């Protein structure tokens, strides 16, 4: 984006991007820490993650206030307006990603980290894949890079395939080990939360592409994920 005549406008846009980056960093860290707490069955760390979600919520409120002020005082147009609106929407999506991390942390108490449930060892790799999408799409937003955003969209199918594989493995495990159904069900919801993180990263990528180009990405192949409301 070119520099504006009114320097205060550039300062506001810079602050908006900074707040989004801060939110994204906290959400990424929360997902990573929640998976680590799950592996170690660390209830203290899980409680800290749940409490830390408040900071993400506070930052979302700051983004909303700044975006509204910016639109009221600067009356942005064209690509400037698209960027402000995109920032507003992205803040809401990142807040949801923080909620998924909180949901995962809340399930730590219900899952024994010493359980010999094979998909439990696969979930961290799925979390890394989804978290990489979040980090890369926020980098694309900061750089106003539509091609980087497009590449993030292309990776969503891999996360969906990971989820479907874990889903089938867990269902098979539950059929063979009825006593572990409760723990396996919690793992299913965690896998669904991670699949939704990938979906949200893709949604952000579509917003970044539109904000940078003024054009919509074509309909994407959303694949076939096995239904499970993990929210």
UniProtKB/TrEMBL annotation:
Highest taxon above the source species: Bacteria
Domain PhoU: 20-108, 125-208
Location of the protein in the cell: Cytoplasm
Signal peptide: none
Chief place where the protein resides: cytoplasm
Keywords: Cytoplasm, Phosphate transport, Transport
Annotated InterPro entries: PhoU (IPR028366), PhoU-like_sf (IPR038078), PhoU_dom (IPR026022)
Statement: the UniProt record of this protein carries the keyword Lyase: no
Purpose of the protein: Plays a role in the regulation of phosphate uptake.
SUBUNIT field: Homodimer.
Recorded family membership: Belongs to the PhoU family.
Name of the protein in question: Phosphate-specific transport system accessory protein PhoU
Naturally occurring in which organism (per UniProt): Stakelama saccharophila
Organism ancestry: Bacteria, Pseudomonadati, Pseudomonadota, Alphaproteobacteria, Sphingomonadales
Gene: phoU
